[in-house]
Amino acid sequence: MSGVQVHRAGALDGVPHGFLGRVGGVSTGIVAGLNVGLGSDDLPGAVAENRCRAVAAVLPGARLTTVFQIHSADAVTVLAPFDEALRPRADALVTNQPGLLLGILTADCAPVLLADREAGVVGAAHAGWKGAIGGVTDSTIAAMEGLGARSDRIVAAVGPCIARASYEVDAGFFRRFCEQDPANERFFADGRPEHFQFDLEAYVVHRLARAGVRTIEALGLDTYANEDRFFSFRRATHRGEPDYGRQISLIGLAG
């Protein structure tokens, strides 16, 4: 649909997908644009219209399916759309059913879209730092394999998320990652005293590669720094704003 800005990955060429931002929606105020967050303090009608526009921009006529995201490592297999009121609590979805459009909402966390074209299996994961270190991408790949995918055939793309230059963390955060694996130190740059700059995108790429994914594309788009294009929880928090918008990333199989 014209007006909706869709960022696509070459790695997923031929698979209906898109990383959407805030451009092209009907919401106003501090969530102005294509806000799709059901939990935001936005008009329900505006959110519904934005979701319809998002679907039309990626896979017209598809049934949108999302989960109740909780920053977990849990992935669910979707064979039919969920009732919106009964969405499972999870942070990733996979399917082999044409006509379903898997959606992940973010506002600084990393959206990850995956596909095994040969098996006809796709997946979408919400990888905030908790989910990323907990293994949400590993769970997504395992769920895709349960539908016949193979990790060495899966291609993945990491969409707009907060970049290292914008993502300051404290020493406790740094230690948590290094205690899991000392090699994780490479994803941090020195910041002000007792603080570091964390590269979430690079860490997610690392987890995908470690799980056997051979083709991975990172879009390198910073949600925090690009206010005109993306919503950002951290930017809204730093400004003391009472609410923030959510963008959506979508992937599906054509019928």
Labels describing this entry:
255 residues; alpha+beta; CNF1/YfiH-like putative cysteine hydrolases; six-stranded mixed beta sheet; five-stranded mixed beta sheet; 24% strand; globular
Query: Per the principal axes of the C-alpha atoms, what is the gross shape?
Result: globular
Uncertain segments are none
Run of helices and strands? EEHEEEEEEHHEEHEEHEHE
Query: From the helix content, strand content and strand pairing, which structural class follows?
Result: alpha+beta
CATH topology: CNF1/YfiH-like putative cysteine hydrolases
Largest sheet, if any? Answer: 6 strands, mixed
- Helicity range: 10-25%
Q: How many structural domains does the protein architecture include?
A: 1
Helical element count? Answer: 6
CATH superfamily: CNF1/YfiH-like putative cysteine hydrolases
> What's the CATH class label?
Alpha Beta
Task: Please give the CATH architecture.
Answer: 4-Layer Sandwich
| Average of the residue pLDDT scores | 97
Strand order within the widest sheet? 4-5-8-7-9-13
Cα radius of gyration in angstroms: 17 Å
End-to-end separation: 19 Å
Number of strands: 14
Strand content is 15-25%
What can you see in these coordinates?
The chain has one domain: CNF1/YfiH-like putative cysteine hydrolases. By secondary structure, the chain is of the alpha+beta class. The protein contains six helices and 14 strands. The radius of gyration is 17 Å and the shape is globular.
Short account of what is shown:
This protein has 255 residues and is an alpha+beta fold.
